[in-house]
Amino acid sequence: MKLLFDLHTHTVASGHAYSTLKENAEAAKERGLIALGTSDHASAMPGGPAPVFFTTYRAIPETLLGIRIFTGVEADILNFDGELDLPADILERMDYVIASLHPPCIQAGTPEENTRAVVRAMANPCVTILGHPDDDRYPLLYEPVVEAAARFHVALEVNSSSLAPRSARRNAEANMRKYLSLCALHRVPVIVNSDAHMYTEVGDFARAEQLLAACAFPEELVLNTQEEGLQCVIRDSDRQQMFRKGRP
Asked: Is the pLDDT of residue 72 over 70?
């Protein structure tokens, strides 16, 4: 399985990552990627940049070192109503938006409450990816999550970082197996990302690829395996049409 792009990466702007955008682009080129997304946290994350950071993305060239650059954000879910930590007028400027649950930004609730948070976040038309829905610190009910992903044309993430031995996320592999099974059953696409916080991690999908192979997950439902898969998660494209291609 050849994966062509990595849309969940962080730079020093996130406050807890260690590489620059140029270093990440260099790593993407070395890995043979065709596209790289930069998706720093927003201001609810301690150390994260102020909203103005995301209004000056126009300074970033569309292509860097031969790699197509997409500018996004990993927006933090703030409450069980799915509110995000950037206003709509800024979210609408992003090429893509990842919505995620993080301990510094929201206290975990019951599985029903956590599920309501992510489903309502996915209902936001700016959101195109649900980040790492694999963490038992935020237990989820996966049937309604997968159903919402299909309804709102949001890609569930297979986060390679979650599978790392030193990951703080709990029970990630078992949880990924649960929602991958449902995604395969209902023909709902997923996206593989590194969640790189250091340039050495950009495009490193080895753990995620091993899990997908072990689950016999259909390759055609992995968005990164084809260039047109970008159209499912980039906001100015015909996402609905592209997202439905994998479904009956």
From this structure: yes
